[in-house]
Amino acid sequence: MKKSLIALAFGTLGLGIAEFVMMAILPYVAADLHISIPTAGHLISAYALGVCAGAPMLTLARKLPLKNILLGLVAIMMVGNIFASLSPNYWTMLVARFISGLPHGAYFGVASVVAEKLADKGKGSEAVSIMIAGMTIANLFGVPLGTSLSTLLSWRLTFMLVGVWGIIILYYIWKWVPQVEGLPDTGFKGQFRFLKTGAPWLILGATMLGNGGVFCWYSYINPLLTKVSGFSTESITLLMVLAGFGMVVGNLLGGKLSDKYTPGRVAASTQFILFMALLGIFFVAHINWLTALLMCLCTAGLFAVSSPQQISIIHFAKGGELLGAACIQVAFNLGNAIGAYIGGLPLQAGLGYQYPALIGAPLAFVGFILLTLFYKKYEPKKM
Fold it and tell me: What pLDDT, on the 0 to 100 scale, is given for residue 235?
């Protein structure tokens, strides 16, 4: 495995902890800031909206060396997370989460292009999946660590940990990632030209709605497991490890299968599995072992579609590859924001914590339809 890809994965590890740990520690943050759990869910949305606002920055930085852009984005990540760890109230935390999200989509966009350029021939999807693997490792180890710190000490230590981890990311990107050939400058307008075709919109729409469906459920995973499935608070850390393991397996499997078959075909098949799993969670949420099994299936599917979507948008965003790759993360996190908000509606209405999964299932099904249309209409049989 190339050291350069590992360095890129260090970055997605930090971003992954910053993004996903909030779902696991939501009750602790809510209690400390004296807000309700649905209101604390807005902190998830704030991060996602930061991603959406930050990705277009790449159009202004398009002439800079790709390695320099990566280093600048990591610095912003450090500032946002340290600010979050020091936030005294809900409103400052909201701003801190927004800042933390700004570099997320842009980093994935640049790192995806760099990873594909560094990949061996025919291994582009696998290289991107290795870069994304940092985010899955974050869920396997980082999120459980953050959950434990929040339970034993303070949730603030988790975000401070991400800020300090940024120093390590900066060092290894500087040392291990070579200066790769930049992309042709197609001008400001040229960066957006790929959006005139239908394929990118199908990919982006499927990413937003498909992932939004999953995040309807995953945003409130902690209270679902404890209040409905009957797991103890002490077992949540282990359950988060299992969820992270599903993400690791799903991500690597999605990358390998995409190189063997096609990214669109793999993504569409996985999206249908996600739809069925969300329905299953709603109906069997009171059976703890089955809920845990479906949780792992959902988290595996969530990342099994990630590298196929990322590599597909690069192939169908000629002239605007950086923006296109970043837009996948915009769509992912916009779906995150929508999912967290919509998933909270049945809770505000007094329904049980299994209902967000039911709300998310139709969104996941629409994502499946869009990916199927993309696969059938636009994707060649073998890229």
Answer: 85
